[in-house]
Amino acid sequence: MEAATFLSLGLYFLAMLGIGVYSFKQANTDVEGYMLGGRNLSPKVTALSAGASDMSGWMLMGLPGAMYLSGLSSAWIAIGLVIGAYLNYILVAPRLRVYTEVANNAITIPDYFENRFNDKSHILRIVSSIVIVLFFTLYTSSGVVAGGKLFETSFGLNYELGLYITAGVVVAYTLFGGFMAVSITDFVQGCIMFIALVLVPVVVLIDLGGWQGVTQSLGTLDGQYLNMFRDASNGQAVSTIAIISMLSWGCGYFGQPHIIVRFMAIRSVNDIKTAQTIGISWMVVAITGALATGLLGLAYVTQHGSQMSDPETIFIYLSQLLFHPLIGGFLLAAILAAIMSTISSQLLVTSSSLTSDFYQAFFRRDASQHELIIVGRISVVLVALVAIYLAYDRDSSILSLVSNAWAGFGAAFGPLILFSLFWKRMTLISAISGMLVGAATVLLWIYLPVTINGQTLSAWLYEIVPGFILSSLTIVVLTLLSEQRDNSVIKTFEKVQTTLNDSINRVEKNS
């Protein structure tokens, strides 16, 4: 690897660490400042931070790889994600921003659940915290593995050294700068990803001689690559069930703690509309670029008679072949940006849960703000160490569990978040039951030894579909069978509604 490439990556790492130092100096000294940035994120930082922490390495490796193998039929996942992200801004963002502040200033998702239902038993907080800590530790491990493999395959470095470099830089800026550092680095990383996902497909398209060259190259393979209703990898028609499975990825957004926590931190509910415009625009361009990278990459490989052993490395292949090493290093930094932005968000959410939902809630209720920040930083290091330890085993079944974590969070938390924000009659027992049913359904759907047409349940239908539906039904039925007797819960709900209406009226008046 040439020195210019290492120079690009070195500058990237220095920039991330610099942001961490800046955020440390600017950060508030209380726990809300460390974990939510003092609820003072600008719309642009909120939008790109949510997008970057959402997409991870999947945007630059997984989606282009799927497009390379299956053609345009992979675009259904992208469509589902864009719709889900848009609805997340419309349905969840404004209400969650107001509710978490009005309901006793909640700073974590489990904290919000407990305050929303006035749960003095703490059962809802405990269960939701366990789900977050467990899945996000595994999620973080997955990101560290991706970083280790990137350093190994692209730079010829030792895999274990790659783990420590990836985790070390992320821990450094997360440890000192907290939520503000994570959000600002996510903003920068989102910009890098955006530029990379526009630059690579444009350069490949020019090299191929325009769209005509692309169609000629793909025509030598099979016209099915340009058909959204046919899977080019097996030549079969895409079934209705398969389309539903791919579109249902969008349902996961409502329950992803590392994404919706950004809505809690935006400086004002009036800024959410601007954040929505920026976030969805960024997402549409970035996802289109990722899809184009896979499809144009296939055309390039075909035209030049090359071979790709791993389709998910098509972005790396093109960035190193078609660009100057200095720019190639920048493009590899885009992959690291995608990986690190998600790791940092997951580290901070897990740390926040350990600090607020376990340490303060059950061990030190009167802990000072300084003490809680120290505990939060220690938690970041501990979770990172566990993730690195798990990442040492590349063949661990943990990685297969992580691949289903999106569905787990979406089914366990998604319906709970939506109903809690819109239905004042919803009760504590329905909240606990809905969360457990959603999580259990996902796990059973994945691991039950049952097949349909020779396929496992998970391969036949994405597990978030039955999980989300059964969780929602559980919440509705149990709420209708029970009665919300806590007047304080109803009054808080009505206060949130009044605050939202006032905000909407102010926005309309100013416009």
From TrEMBL:
Q: Name one GO cellular component term.
A: plasma membrane
Membrane topology note: Multi-pass membrane protein
Annotated GO MF terms? L-proline transmembrane transporter activity; proline:sodium symporter activity; sodium ion binding
Tell me where in or outside the cell this protein is found. Cell inner membrane; Cell membrane
Q: Which UniProt keywords apply?
A: Amino-acid transport, Cell inner membrane, Cell membrane, Ion transport, Membrane, Sodium, Sodium transport, Symport, Transmembrane, Transmembrane helix, Transport
What Gene3D superfamilies does this protein's entry cite? Sodium/glucose cotransporter
In terms of InterPro entries, this protein maps to: Na/Glc_symporter_sf, Na/Pro_symporter, Na/solute_symporter, Na/solute_symporter_CS, Sodium:Solute_Symporter
Q: Quick one: where is this thing mainly located?
A: membrane
A Pfam match is SSF
User: Which PROSITE patterns does the UniProt record give?
Assistant: NA_SOLUT_SYMP_1, NA_SOLUT_SYMP_3
Q: Which family does it belong to?
A: Belongs to the sodium:solute symporter (SSF) (TC 2.A.21) family.
What is this protein's name?
A: Sodium/proline symporter
Encoding gene, per UniProt annotation: putP2
